[in-house]
Write a structure and sequence with these properties.
Elements lengths: L1 H23 L2 H17 L10 H23 L16 H20 L2 H12 L4 H8 L3 H32 L1
Helix pairs in contact: 1-2, 1-3, 1-5, 2-3, 3-6, 4-7, 5-7, 6-7
Length: 174
Amino acid sequence: MTEEVRRGIIELLPRLRRFAYALTGGPDKGDDLVQEGCARALAHLDQYQPGTRLDSWMYKIMRNVWLDQQRASAVRDLVIDLELVPEPAGEDGRRIVESRLTLKQVLGAMSKLPQEQRVLIALVCFEGLSYQEAAAILEIPIGTVTSRLARGRRALYTLAVDGLNTLESEKCRS
């Protein structure tokens, strides 16, 4: 059984990375989060309940690791540095720059959301989980998922649009 769970975790790595990037805002801290989440999962394989969804179990672990890191960061007063994904070779430079600017705005806006909204947006919008699945992972009522997600989406849109408008006005001035 443990070997089956280990293989399952390996298969989940791309999804776990997406989730981690959404929470942390970039690949460096996201990869660290995935590594820590997998390490905790492997150290506590005895706590995995056969018959439950492995992805849900891993999302819970990673969310808890991330929340622990957020608390520790608040105590240490660390500044989180957002880094952009390296530029792929052979792509249109203008499109990449515009995409990165948009991504930077969205990631910046995501970092300003309350933790509970950020986690829900990552699970539902990035990972494609249903509201019911997200509610089960977070152990909250579906109505709470719906309201937090609606507030989070509105706030994300407002923050991202404000950031893009600021960027446009700065471009016009230069």
